[in-house]
Amino acid sequence: MAAMRAALSPAPKAPAPPAVKPVAAGASGLAFGPLRLRTPVMLAPMAGVTNPPFRRLCREQAEEGLALAGADPAPRGLPGTDAPGGLWVCEMITSRALVERNPEAMNMIKPDPGDPVRSIQLYGVEPKTSAAAVAMLVGENKADHIDLNFGCPAPKVTRKGGGSALPWKLDLFREIVSAAVEAARRASAGRDVEVPVTAKIRVGIDDGHTTFLDAARIAEDAGIAGLTLHARTTAQHYSGSADWGRIAELAEATSLPVLGNGDVFEVEDAVRLMAETGCVGVAVGRGCQGRPWLFRELAARLHGCGEVARPGLSDVVAMIERHGQLSYEHFNGDEHRAMRELRKHIGWYLRGFAVGGGSRRELALVSTREELHDRLARLDLDQPYPEAAEGPRGRAGGPKRPHVPDGWLDSRELSPADRARIARAEINVSGG
């Protein structure tokens, strides 16, 4: 993080925290077409993490932050057009799974019932299937916002030409974003407002094969309403430092609203990112793992409130239990499934707190809400929020050789062989 910030600021001394202009009361924040984000923050979709229970916790925390700042947390205007605390995006859903009405995918798109804007991230590699999925989501009134995923670096995705590998093929990228926007436009004909389509991209495949500026130009021409740039390449995966300078390049090169993504682990990171790059908002991924209260801090700060008290262990334990209850309800009373999904979150929640190895092992094996409650109750709940809980979170790993189809990098256009392969590359496994 320090190296990244130094690269962006030539001053020999660490700069003072930049000022951020609060979002004025009654201001729109930023807009994706008719959709207003009064707090310019997006929860970045993460496979196996950002399901409805977790999204609800993040939203509620943001609404608490709004209240602390004296801002109105209630939605305004037409349904589905106002996001007071930010945008809470569903896990990545594949186009094919939706078109085939895969039961798991249909369950994944169930919204947080209190969320005023239903936001779904869609993955696809074939224009017709992508368009059909968009048409279904909009035509059946299942989404108020659709985000197209061109940022996933996972080898199982990129080796098929999808995710962050796809924008290298300019014609395919153009066909998909154009088809998606047109499908949303047509399917919105019976609604009060058109459902906006945005896109998430990466810098490129590697330093020698950048794609983000070309992708932005094509997206803007196609009618995409906004862009999120994860300022890493496919090769970086999640390693090293995000190159915020690329976000600044993009914000300067396009008239579209740009959200910056990458290495936002604290409120000051978000403030600095916007101040140094000119992007209009931030997308937060790994930084909120086990820390949904980050959105309370962000909402409060961006609406002009100063320091917000961080939770002690008793507060964190209460949130874990609430997360467990929401998970139980989401999985229709399947307690074992709910606890299995919660376990990974528990380790993130407890990061930095003095919790012994034995207690952590027991909590990693909980299978019922009663077990969860009993084992959490044994902890020293008087602990304040620890400094060790701050800083980068999530698995970063190291750089990885990009996995792309054979001959993919030979041309920016699809060959006949590429087209035949793409037709077979639609996967029906949602979640990334």
Report on the architecture of this protein.
With 432 residues, this protein is of the alpha/beta class. The chain folds into 2 domains: 34-309 and 416-423, TIM Barrel (Alpha-Beta Barrel); 313-383. It is 39% helix and 13% strand. The chain contains 16 helices and 12 strands. The chain has helices spanning 2-8, 52-68, 95-99, 103-108, 127-139, 155-158, 170-187, 212-222, 244-253, 267-277, 294-302, 313-330, 335-349, 357-363, 369-377, 416-423; strands at 30-32, 35-37, 41-43, 82-83, 87-94, 119-123, 145-150, 197-206, 209-210, 227-233, 258-261, 281-284. The chain has an 8-stranded parallel β-barrel with strand order 3-5-6-7-8-10-11-12, surrounded by 7 helices. Strand 11, helix 10 and strand 12 form a beta-alpha-beta unit. The chain starts with a helix and ends in a 9-residue tail after the last helix.
Global shape: globular
What integer is the average pLDDT?
A: 90
According to DSSP, the number of beta strands is 12
Distance separating the two termini: 26 Å
Number of self-contained structural domains: 2
Rg from C-alpha positions?
21 Å
| CATH class value of the largest domain | Alpha Beta
Helix content: 25-40%
Q: Please tally the helical runs, counting DSSP H or I stretches of 4 or more residues.
A: 16
Q: What is the CATH architecture descriptor of the largest domain?
A: Alpha-Beta Barrel
| Structural class label | alpha/beta
pLDDT under 50 segments (min length 5)?
A: 1-20, 22-28
Spatially, the strands of the biggest sheet line up as 3-5-6-7-8-10-11-12
Content of β-strand:
5-15%
Q: According to CATH, what is the topology of the largest domain? A: TIM Barrel
Assigned CATH superfamily of the largest domain = Aldolase class I
